[in-house]
DNA sequence: CACCTTTCTGTAAACGTTTACTGCGATCGC
DNA sequence: GCGATCGCAGTAAACGTTTACAGAAAGGTG
């Protein structure tokens, strides 16, 4: 594991200057004979160019960072799976950051862009405050944010419209005759939490149903916490006939709780989730869910970043992915084959 | 987004040499007055050290790569989740590689270590051949392999003992009185596939049961493919009373198929999987599974690599994580609360 | 054959750090 | 009061590339 060969080693062996070696290796016009000598020397030595030195000179690292709260979350996972091949195809490596949804850590990731170890960053903050926005605009490398930022923020942005998404689900549940539609949300100080809370309240009214705060419960965006919240809700409002869950993990928790409580899904309680994670389709019963286009958002973010890396000066773009309702058994029952 | 300040900028503003700036920033003994001037200049300029330049000089990148087939696989995901914090705590960033289990890509990752963009690599190859072993031993940076490599290979290695794992499950099923134990495996040319195939054949014989090749079916290590394999198996051997699945994804596929076929789990067919992924505990019914310590293997691999990075010359270590049987409802039914 | 192009190669500087070495002024011991 | 010692800071080299520039060799033209 001794020190590998450098262009100097090659230059000596081939009897040429390091400039010639560099030119040959970069395919610049060189005399046939020199090319051959350099290439065979490089080959014999098993030369691999040092990317650090190259980066220092070229000011490009061919690395891109992706920062999310927790890679264990299926939504982020889907995004990583989509982002990775796009970047790879463009010659970039992927550096992963887990921030645990900690604001200080997120800010630190933005600050660390000054270290120039990546050419750009895709970030998906759960909460977006003043500090974020300032740090984003001061960032020393291009940033793409997944999740809605305030209009006018000078940053590339991929969004979805979870308000419309909530309404799609509510209308669907209502169209099935449900009137007592419970809502299980995550923390209200998060971007999706607050948006979905508003959307539920508005949506219920637009359907001509009374807003009943006994039908609303807050937990967290995880299966276990969701399940607990559903338990509380169920004991407070035993007459509910539908559940709108702010994400699919909560909805899966709801399925567990309902099953153990002996309620049939969807006959007694129809359940809808959000995010359309892979598990939604294979859960039992399969889960009706509002797709927020996680895969597409990931892909778009990667493309937006690549575009920006190719053209640093264009105006920031905002791309919105429309939500789509995926109707499955948890609201309409098993289709008869 | 202009070019950020460098130590030269700071040196000018503070009226000192770049050497002094560097010394101050690295906490080397310096006169009180100089320290103050440099620090305030750095502060005003919002200086962030360039990690590329630092890496070039120091020959360390503070990055580590993790290469696996597909981040979507829950087992690898668990490992990433475990590896990341360990590395982060030690000051390393994580670079992710998905190789799609493609041997050429894996070899390429090993070769790319010569680019020196990472200080080390954790790799989990599905198939391990001659080419791998040669590339591993020729690698220009420390490598830790998760998955059994042939004895004597000079590389740090974290293993599990899936043969013992399979036997644990078979003995458990036999102890429940099952005699027609089917086996659904993944491709035989993979390391786990071949190990588990041998283990099943041996295990069955040791239990005094006849080896019936009609009870064995090969698919792939995914839910959908597993489900198909289980369907085939079920039509070929309708009398089976237990299913040993080579991993949990296959087992989840088996649960789907059995449910749709109207077989009760575990009353009619007991099901056991391997890997003990998160989903196993929350599936319905919850899945008996052989834990191969994915989280622990990830953690150990990270620790092994860190140790090696601190001491490049020690002999390669082999660490084995023993399998543990997690008994759940898919074999013994719901425990009465 | 002298001159001008053209083609190729080598020298050297640059990217932003760290660090060995040198030199300077001050302090110490005698 | 003088040499030795010490603390500190500056100069310069190095890490491994890329690339502007200059120079040499070769070819073409009159």
Automatic annotation (TrEMBL), chains A, B:
Q: Which SMART domains match?
A: HTH_LACI
Per UniProt, the keywords (alphabetical) are: DNA-binding, Transcription, Transcription regulation
Q: Which InterPro entries match?
A: HTH_LacI, LacI/GalR-like_sensor, Lambda_DNA-bd_dom_sf, Peripla_BP_I
For the keyword Glycoprotein, the answer is: no
- Where does the source fall among the domains of life? Bacteria
Name the Gene Ontology molecular function terms of this record: DNA-binding transcription factor activity; transcription cis-regulatory region binding
Record protein name field? LacI family transcriptional regulator
Naturally occurring in which organism (per UniProt): Streptosporangium minutum
């Amino acid at each position: 594991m001794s020190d590998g060969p450098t262009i100097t080693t090659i230059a000596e062996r081939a009897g040429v200057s390091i400039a010639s070696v560099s030119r040959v290796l970069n395919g610049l016009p060189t005399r046939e004979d020199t090319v051959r000598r350099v290439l065979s020397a490089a080959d014999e030595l098993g030369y691999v160019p040092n990317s650090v030195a190259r980066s220092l000179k070229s000011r490009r690292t061919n690395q891109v960072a992706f920062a999310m709260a927790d890679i264990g979350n299926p939504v982020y996972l889907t995004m990583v799976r989509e982002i990775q091949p796009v970047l790879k195809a463009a010659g970039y490596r992927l550096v992963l950051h887990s921030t645990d949804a900690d604001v200080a850590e997120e800010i630190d990731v933005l600050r660390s862009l000054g270290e120039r170890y990546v050419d750009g960053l895709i970030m998906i903050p759960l909460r977006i405050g003043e500090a974020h926005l300032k740090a984003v605009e001061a960032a020393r490398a291009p940033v793409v944010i997944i999740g809605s930022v305030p209009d006018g923020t000078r940053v590339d942005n991929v969004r979805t419209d979870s308000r419309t998404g909530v309404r799609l689900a509510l209308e669907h549940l209502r169209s099935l005759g449900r009137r007592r539609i419970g809502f299980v949300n995550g923390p209200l100080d998060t971007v999706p939490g607050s948006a979905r809370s508003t959307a539920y309240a508005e949506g219920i009214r637009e359907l001509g149903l009374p807003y009943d705060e006994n039908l609303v419960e807050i937990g967290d965006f995880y299966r276990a916490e969701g399940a607990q919240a559903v338990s509380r809700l169920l004991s407070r409002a035993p007459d509910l006939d539908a559940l709108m869950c702010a994400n699919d993990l909560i909805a899966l928790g709801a399925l567990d709780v309902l099953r153990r409580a002996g309620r049939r899904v969807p006959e007694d309680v129809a359940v809808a989730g959000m995010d359309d994670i892979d598990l939604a389709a294979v859960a039992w019963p399969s889960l009706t869910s509002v797709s927020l286009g996680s895969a597409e958002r990931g892909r778009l973010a990667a493309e937006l970043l690549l575009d920006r890396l190719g053209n640093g000066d264009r105006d920031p773009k905002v791309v919105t992915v429309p939500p789509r309702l995926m109707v499955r058994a948890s609201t309409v029952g098993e289709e008869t084959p």
